[in-house]
């Protein structure tokens, strides 16, 4: 029974959320920690250094840091973003964002939960999944709108 | 149990409707599944999908072919041959319970009606070993080890002996359809903190880059196991890959040779009917 997923209907849409029973919180995901680095970070290769930030705690984390951090936004997995290396191309390049999203609230809504605009999207629902909190989202939005 | 199967079936219909008409049976699914990749990758000959991401990119393929000149899995094949030939405690061998080695790869996975389960090659080998040795494949601490180590080496030898056969899983019928549906649901269901399905990466976005990785099409996913991955530095089974991809989206992974992955293997293997068995494999 432990292994059965709970299937929740998020809306009447095609979006289905299946949470495994062993699922824990944000980055404390023990599974991911225990799992062999190479596998756990496959979509995020070698240079990921999760502890780099812990080593210099005084520097304030910027929106860019959050967007690029493989354990946080990891937006580069899918989007080309100026200044980021080895971007994926699953999503559109994030350019001309101020023009495309003159209303920051709309940009925030997209990043908070991309399923609202596209129920079957692969883009991670950063807000509802507890990956980025409100303050972090605002920082990311500020950074993205400079692109 | 029944209720939750119904729930997942409904969920599936919704999730799957983006790809194919609802109400399709396994045979219709198979056509739709393969047509998707044939259309998305018009220039890739059908028989090349067994090469995964390498079928999509000439440069990667050239690097891979160079690696295959001195196959990293060769020592594992040798080790596997020894395991195959070594008698169990009761004096019997794998050949006594598995039959002709050349018949193994194409036989599995299949639906075993008596046991109402999916028999995979690895689960059959583990059963043989249990019968002959009194215990299955285990690690040093005596815990089951079914995704790497000796069982993967044994499979490497068997796969090598079976290269060139074609995948031909019988169309699921009767109670086998429940297992098929379970695997299909698994494939299309969003899961984990990152909320992604197998299909998100390996159907909808196959051929795209996720960071520096080219996403392979699901067609051909099962052909080349066990696989030596340079990133792992060892040979591992298909279920080990499932575990890795589940972990990647921050979902809990399941036990190798547990019902979830056996169902997933059954579904994915049927979807790859017509592809060539070409294990053991190597990947970067």
Distance from first to last alpha carbon of chain B: 40 Å
Judged by helices, strands and strand pairing, the structural class of chain B is mainly alpha
Low-confidence stretches of chain B: 1-18
Oligomer: heterodimer
Number of helices of chain B: 12
Q: Kindly, what is the distance between the CA atoms of the first and last residues of chain A, rounded to a whole number of angstroms?
A: 47 Å
CATH topology of the domain at 63-146 in chain A: Cytochrome Bc1 Complex, Chain D, domain 2
Tally of distinct domains of chain B: 2
Low-confidence stretches of chain A: 1-49
Which overall shape of chain A is indicated by the principal axes computed on the Cα atoms? Answer: globular
Instruction: Give the % helix of chain A.
Output: 25-40%
Continuous helix count of chain A: 7
Beta-strand share of residues of chain B:
5-15%
Content-based structural category of chain A: mainly alpha
Helix-strand string of chain A = EEHHHHHHH
What spatial form of chain B do the alpha-carbon principal axes imply? globular
Helix and strand element order of chain B: HHHHHHEEHHHEHEEEEHHE
GO molecular function (chain A): electron transfer activity; heme binding; metal ion binding
Keywords (chain A): Heme, Iron, Metal-binding, Signal
Pfam family, one (chain A): Cytochrom_C
Domain Cytochrome c (chain A): 58-147
